[in-house]
């Protein structure tokens, strides 16, 4: 990785640690510089302000998360099923605390950024990816044909968001170990959603690869649009 990219990643890793620890609202550029072990001026060489840094961090975090997620799918013989898809998500989220906060829309961590009308968190969650995924998996024989995609997507999201937010309602010491719950949920999904012949996991993996590539393209387009809009404002 070139020196410029490594320094930027160093700053983003530091920003992740500080924002998780004290939240977006309380975090300053000086806090991030101190955490990264660089001067405040160095941080400003890469980012013009906290909002720009945070939006770059959201894109960077999604990239790191999606890489872990895709690697988990590729290494899992059942990775091309809906259960495998969510098993990989839970694995990736478990290793990326900021992504877990993004998915929960954690107000302590994300703070006033969530009030921004065109905030990237809302944009990242928009669309019907889960519905489209189920339809695509049905088309290649990796999910049951008799499922209603919209109802199934709603139930899957209820389960997954419930797992992400359960600690808000129950003490962590009352919860079973996360990896055990993750495996049980994925197994339940496959028992419920797979065709009787077990489904075509390899074809499902190809569908998921395409979903990841398309989502990455949309997020990159969003990032570039925000950069252009910001640059236009500065010129005006």
Automatic annotation (TrEMBL):
Q: Where is the HTH tetR-type domain?
A: 5-65
Q: Which Pfam families match?
A: TetR_N (PF00440)
Q: Which InterPro entries match?
A: DNA-bd_HTH_TetR-type_CS, Homeodomain-like_sf, HTH-type_TetR-like_transc_reg, HTH_TetR, Tet_transcr_reg_TetR-rel_C_sf
Gene3D superfamilies reported for this sequence:
Tetracycline Repressor, domain 2 (1.10.357.10)
Q: Which domain of life is it from?
A: Bacteria
The keyword Membrane is annotated on this UniProt entry: no
Keywords linked to the UniProt accession: DNA-binding, Transcription, Transcription regulation
- DNA-binding positions are 28-47
Q: Does the keyword Transmembrane feature in the UniProt annotation?
A: no
Q: Which PANTHER family match?
A: HTH-TYPE TRANSCRIPTIONAL REGULATOR BETI, HTH-TYPE TRANSCRIPTIONAL REGULATOR RUTR
Specify the protein name. Answer: HTH tetR-type domain-containing protein
């Amino acid at each position: 990785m070139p020196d410029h990219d490594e320094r930027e990643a160093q700053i983003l890793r530091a920003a992740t640690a500080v924002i998780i620890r004290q939240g977006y609202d309380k975090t300053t550029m000086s806090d991030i510089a101190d955490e990264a072990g660089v001067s405040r001026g160095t941080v400003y060489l890469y980012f013009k302000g906290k909002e720009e840094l945070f939006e770059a961090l959201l894109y960077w975090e999604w990239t790191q998360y999606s890489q872990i997620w895709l690697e988990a799918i590729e290494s899992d013989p059942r990775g091309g099923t809906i259960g495998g898809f969510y098993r990989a998500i839970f694995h990736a989220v478990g290793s990326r605390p900021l992504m877990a906060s993004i998915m929960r829309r954690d107000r302590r961590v994300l703070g006033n950024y969530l009030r921004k009308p065109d905030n990237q968190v809302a944009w990242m969650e928009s669309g019907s990816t889960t519905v489209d995924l189920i339809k695509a998996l049905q088309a290649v024989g990796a999910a049951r044909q008799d499922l209603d995609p919209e109802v199934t997507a709603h139930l899957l999201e209820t389960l997954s968001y419930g797992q992400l937010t359960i600690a808000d309602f129950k003490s962590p010491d009352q919860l079973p170990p996360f990896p055990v719950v993750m495996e049980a949920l994925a197994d339940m999904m496959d028992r419920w959603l797979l065709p009787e012949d077990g489904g075509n996991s390899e074809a499902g993996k190809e569908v998921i690869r395409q979903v990841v590539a398309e989502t990455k393209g949309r997020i990159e387009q969003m990032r570039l649009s925000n950069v252009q809009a910001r640059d236009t404002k500065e010129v005006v």
